[in-house]
Design a protein that fits this description.
The chain has helices at about 35-55, 90-100, 110-120, 180-185, 185-200, 215-225, 225-250, 265-280, 300-310, and strands at about 1-10, 10-20, 25-30, 60-70, 70-75, 75-80, 85-90, 105, 130-135, 135-145, 145, 255-260, 290. The chain is α/β, with parallel strands linked by helices. It has 2 domains: about 1-115, ATPase, nucleotide binding domain (Nucleotidyltransferase, domain 5, 2-Layer Sandwich); about 120-295, ATPase, nucleotide binding domain (Nucleotidyltransferase, domain 5), CATH 3.30.420.40. About 40% of the residues lie in helices and about 25% in strands. A 5-stranded mixed β-sheet has the order 3-2-1-4-8. A 5-stranded mixed β-sheet has the order 11-10-9-12-13, sandwiched between helices. A 3-stranded antiparallel β-sheet has the order 5-6-7, with no helix packed on it.
């Protein structure tokens, strides 16, 4: 028996064929044509999945799971996917008619959390929180080896915790609020803070010679001992330490798994967050471990496949 895991993003879709114990047999990646609309995108996903099954002679695929970049309901409807301009799309119904198998969907960050728990960095923990740091900030919670699913399809939106009251923040968020964690710790926010620091002082910095500044450049300079970059990294990690201490006061996980593109910075990220986390964590929650994610951009495929298997009752 096999299953399919799909990770749908704003620019690309990845489809993986998995064995029932979570071995990735093969995968493919295609660009997403947003102009095609929901039906066009989903039709292409179905065609690609069918082609993959045919090429691998996998006639025994029992289900498909898909992570989508937005909120979902009942594991079947994409309620709101901003970067795809989707609202209330009956994803499962559409794909089931084309592929003739059960289809379930979930938030892409939740899929990544479940993937890391199934075959990645959090396998050793019964409870964990995945924090994805990239263009945005997302997450997913695992409790007693099961994904925590919210009542309204809004679970795991760590990036939209309010770090500052509206009136204290000059940075509007895509969700419509101000002061969201994402506006201080996502990759674009790291770049913005670095540029502000460069403009505010004459401090020599490796970053002054970088034309197209990226978050990676900030972390690379910090690793090289650049004082200005170290200051930016320290501030970003302070915000994360405080926010995750608040998460721990509610959830009390064994570990935080740090993933997403920014996590490629490595230990400088987790090592700088940890002291702030321990400073602000409620007593008893301050021993949570901080671990870097292992599955990279494949985590969503793994988690989507596992979610479909769980819903099917196969595991």
């Amino acid at each position: 028996m096999h299953c399919l895991g799909v990770d749908l993003g704003g620019t690309a879709v990845k489809i993986g064929l998995f064995s029932m114990d979570g071995q990735l047999i093969c995968k493919l990646q295609n660009p997403v044509n947003k102009a095609a609309g929901p039906e066009g995108i989903l039709s292409e996903i179905a065609a690609s999945a069918a082609r993959l099954m045919n090429e691998q002679h996998a006639e025994d695929v029992c289900c498909l799971g898909m992570g989508v970049p937005g909120n979902v309901a009942e594991g079947r409807f994409a309620l709101r996917c901003v970067n795809l301009s989707w609202r209330n799309v009956p994803v499962s119904d559409f794909l089931e008619k084309l592929l003739h198998m059960p289809v379930t969907i979930l938030h892409d960050a939740s899929a990544a959390a479940l993937g890391e728990h199934w075959r990645g960095a959090s396998r050793a923990y019964d409870s964990s929180v995945l924090v994805t740091l990239g263009t945005g900030v997302g997450g997913g919670l695992i409790d007693r080896n099961r994904l925590v699913e919210g009542a309204h399809g809004c679970d795991g939106e760590l990036g939209h915790m309010t770090l500052f009251p509206d009136e204290a923040s000059p940075f509007p968020c895509s969700c419509g609020k101000r002061g969201c964690l994402e506006q201080y710790t996502a990759a674009p926010a790291i770049v913005r803070q670095a540029r502000a620091a460069l403009a505010a002082s004459d401090t020599p910095s490796l970053l002054r010679s970088v034309a197209d500044l990226q978050a990676k450049d900030v972390f690379d300079a910090a690793k090289a001992g650049d004082a200005l970059a170290l200051g930016v990294v320290d501030r970003v990690c302070f915000y994360l330490g405080v926010a995750l201490a608040n998460v721990a006061a509610v959830f009390d996980p064994e570990a935080f798994i740090i993933g997403g593109g920014v996590s490629k910075a490595g230990r400088i990220l987790t090592d700088t967050i940890l002291p702030y986390y321990r400073q602000y964590a409620y007593p008893g929650t301050d021993h949570a471990e901080f671990v870097l994610a292992k599955l990279g951009n494949e985590a969503g495929m793994y988690g989507a496949a596992r979610f479909a298997l769980d819903k099917l009752g196969s595991l």
